[in-house]
């Protein structure tokens, strides 16, 4: 009997549930343990977990004064990366992963990035086990004020966009951070727009209509559902992680 790989899912904010991404992970065979801090405590270590998923939220990655438990999230993400536990960190989660590993996150100098958008693969993505099979341009949903402005040392850039360059990265062999959302639903995005009308106003007038969001989420499902399945294969050991980066000595 094959045991389902258990994923720790960290949900920093009630407003950003795992949504369809959770369905894609479970249909690929994963078992989810969803924790919503600070009400639900995080495990002290990752014993018993085959992988980690960290979702988004309305707070900042460095907002420890208002949310002191963020430090525990960063420590756990750093532990996962250090132990080569496959990790997928989304939006705020990706920012927390970047900061935990020595990168920088600040308020974006190009303003908020809001609504449906496209990100493009970078060179390293073409040989990455999760990103290689994605199309050149990927449909995503953006809703963030802060941005990653410096990747952790040694991280590989996997996707970019004209406004903010660091849209997706991999640290070491299997810790992934993405700046965008792939887990949303039409209703979740509409709720965000109501909660943050000043951000919603920055996108195209028709971008956040129910009709357009339904089309966008259908495209997101087509692209990112197979990606989620590959993540479960990575967690299960059925998909090899990225190769170690080659370190070459200068030629004499």
UniProtKB/TrEMBL annotation:
InterPro entries membership: ChyE-like, Class_I_gatase-like, GATASE
Keywords in alphabetical order: Glutamine amidotransferase
PROSITE patterns reported for this sequence: GATASE_TYPE_1
Gene3D superfamilies: 3.40.50.880
Pfam families named among the record's database cross-references: GATase
Signal peptide: none
Domain Glutamine amidotransferase intervals: 47-185
PANTHER family, sorted: GLUTAMINE AMIDOTRANSFERASE YLR126C-RELATED
Record protein name field: Glutamine amidotransferase
Annotated organism of origin: Amycolatopsis oliviviridis
Gene that specifies this protein: guaA
